[in-house]
C-alpha cells in the first residue's frame, strides 16, 4: 500500500517552524514510518518575502533533509503573505501553528473556523479558558486538534514509562525536573518574545511545559493515579527579571494525590546539571534522564546501594540509549498527527486534549500567583 500523504500548512517562519519543517523532509522510513508521507503545501507569514525565503532555505536543505526536497515534499508549495490564506487554502489538510504563545488561540481558532485540523506549539494557549474554547470549536467542527508536545512521542519516553510502571525499581517516591539554560537575557531586546510580557514572555510559559511533560508522563500517567486526577499546586515561586517584568525562573511543587510529588524548575539564567535533568526517584534507585528534557536520548538507572530501604534486584548502574531517528526529533509527533487524521481521530491518545488542559491549569495557577507582568494577562477566548 502506498503511504498516505498529509498536506501541511505552516503558520509563521521563525525558529521552531524551521526545525519542524526540516524534520518533515526526512525520509520517514528512517524511523520505520513507511505508511506516511509529509508534504508542505503552504507557508504563511506576515511577510511574503519571509515566506519565500523560508521555502528557499528548505529547498536548499542538505544531508538527511534533502530526501524530502528530492522526493516531492515541497512540490508546488504556495508561499503566502498572510496566515489567513493558509487557513483557507484547499491544498492544506492540517495547519501547524508556531507563532508566539499569545497568538496561539487566535491562530488556532481561525484555522479551525476555516475547517482545518491543527497542531499547535507549546504552550497550547495563554490560559485554560482559551484552550477550552478551542476544544469546543474543534469538537463542534469535527476537526483534529493537538498540542505539539513532541517529547511524548519519542522512543525514550515509552521506555522510561515501561520500566517505571513495571515496578522493578519499587515504589515511585518523587520526581525532580530542571529545564534550565542560559538564554543571555541581558543581551536580548525588550521586544524579544521571551522578554516581552505582551507576548507571554518568561521562563514559565516557554521552558515550563517540559518539566510538566515529565510530570505528566511519570505521575499523571502512573497506574496509582487511577482516576487520572489533576495535580495540586502545593507551592510556586517566580523570580522576576526586572528589565521587563517577566519571570527569569519559575519553580513549582505539584502533588498528584496517591502518587507523589514533583519539584519542577524552569530557569532562563543558567544551565542545570546536564546529565540529570529529570530524576525519577523510586525505592530502589533513580531513573536519571540526561539533557535536554525536550528530547533526551539517554537515561541511567542508578541503584541506591546498601543503604536503600529496599534491597532488591537493582545492583549496578546501567545506561540506556534510545537514539532519535535522523532529524531533530519532531517527526514522531508529525507522524502521529498523520495517523490520527488518516484514521478519522479528533485527538491523539498519546497527547489527549484533557491532558493539555491539566497542564494549562497548572501554568495558569503558577502565573497568576506570581508577581510578574504576565500575571494578569488575559487570553482571547470568545473573541
Ligand atoms: N517544541 C519546542 O521545543 C519549541 C521550541 C521553541 C519554540 N517553541 C514554541 O513555538 C512558538 C514560537 O517560538 P519560536 O522560537 O519559533 O519563535 P520565533 O523564532 O520568534 O518565531 C515566531 C514567529 O511568529 C511570527 N509572529 C507573528 N506575530 C509575531 C509577533 N508579534 N512577534 C514575533 N513573531 C511573530 C513570526 O513569523 P512571520 O513573521 O513569518 O509571521 C515569527 O518568526 C512559541 O510558542 C514557543 O513556545 C516550541
From TrEMBL:
GFO/IDH/MocA-like oxidoreductase domain ranges (all copies): 160-287
Catalyzed reaction equations: D-xylose + NADP(+) = D-xylono-1,5-lactone + NADPH + H(+)
Top class in the EC scheme: oxidoreductase
Keywords for the protein's UniProt record, in alphabetical order: Oxidoreductase
Domain of life: Eukaryota
Domain Gfo/Idh/MocA-like oxidoreductase N-terminal span(s) in chain numbering: 7-146
UniProt-recorded Gene Ontology molecular function terms: D-xylose 1-dehydrogenase (NADP+) activity; nucleotide binding
SUPFAM superfamilies listed in its UniProt record: Glyceraldehyde-3-phosphate dehydrogenase-like, C-terminal domain (SSF55347), NAD(P)-binding Rossmann-fold domains (SSF51735)
EC number in record: 1.1.1.179
InterPro entries, per the entry: Gfo/Idh/MocA-like_OxRdtase_N, Gfo/Idh/MocA_domain, GFO_IDH_MocA-like_dom, NAD(P)-bd_dom_sf
Family: Belongs to the Gfo/Idh/MocA family.
Protein name as catalogued: D-xylose 1-dehydrogenase (NADP(+), D-xylono-1,5-lactone-forming)
